[in-house]
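Progress note, sequence design subtask.
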């Protein structure tokens, strides 16, 4: 049975997954205040959108989810494989304070119920990992996946929670799917050399969600504990921003989670 359901508060719409030990949320572009290519719930402060509107959008989402925005944990995403453990509430959260220097990290983990790990996406996969006692949000682009970020985040989560990998549940949010993701032969080669089946890189198309699911299974997470919302950001312009579809001029949605 799928754990995903559509949720709405006012004009703000999101997808929520009830996991055994956590709540996972994947925002949409609906319910914010931005306009033009960033319409409407753009959460990306580094886009060319008006910063005041992005700040308002971030507050709108936090209010809709009833989460403290000052306790959102995030960083500067660089398509790498670095993981950050948050063992204390952020002193100053980049989610609410513009201009802060951010750690160059693509995965955030915590064992604190008050802290909300968050990643921003516009085609890459927002992956939530949850175990008894810890939760994380992982930004999975092809470079990060090829660099081992899924396994590294899983190792860090289990270390933080002192649990086995068999106790972890994963949720993949909306991302660009194989139908819309063309790549060059060098990308296909990287994934084949990493051990992925040819179906992951069929012709000139990359099935990134399939690659992430395989990485989780290789690392010890049972297939039945990995849930995929199976929605393509590029195919759904009314609900999601897409970097490829919109030629780089677009907003950002979020994947975030907290212990329940």
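Output:
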């Amino acid at each position: 049975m799928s754990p995903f359901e559509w949720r709405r508060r006012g004009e703000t719409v999101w997808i929520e997954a009830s996991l055994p030990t956590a709540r996972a949320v994947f925002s949409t572009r609906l319910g914010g205040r931005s306009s033009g290519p960033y319409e409407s719930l753009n959460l990306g402060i580094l886009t060319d959108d008006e910063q005041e509107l992005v700040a308002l959008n971030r507050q709108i989402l936090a209010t809709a989810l009833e989460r403290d925005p000052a306790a959102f944990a995030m960083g500067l995403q660089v398509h790498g494989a670095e993981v950050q453990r948050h063992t204390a509430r952020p002193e100053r959260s980049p989610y609410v304070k513009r201009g802060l220097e951010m750690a160059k990290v693509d995965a955030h983990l915590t064992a604190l119920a008050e802290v909300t790990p968050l990643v921003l996406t516009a085609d890459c996969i927002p992956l939530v990992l949850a175990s008894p006692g810890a939760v994380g949000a992982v930004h999975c682009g092809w470079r990060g996946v090829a660099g081992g970020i899924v396994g590294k985040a899983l190792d860090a989560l289990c270390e933080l929670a002192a649990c086995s990998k068999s106790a972890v549940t994963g949720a993949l949010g909306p991302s660009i799917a194989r139908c819309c993701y063309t790549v060059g032969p060098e990308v296909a080669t990287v994934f084949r050399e990493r051990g992925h089946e040819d179906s992951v890189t069929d012709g000139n198309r990359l099935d990134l969600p399939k690659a992430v699911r395989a990485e989780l299974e290789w690392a010890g997470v049972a297939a039945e504990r990995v849930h995929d919302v199976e929605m393509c950001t590029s195919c759904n312009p009314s609900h999601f921003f897409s970097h490829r579809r919109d030629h780089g001029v677009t907003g950002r949605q979020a994947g975030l989670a907290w212990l329940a």
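The first strand starts at residue 4 and ends at 9. Work on this subtask will continue into the next period as scheduled.
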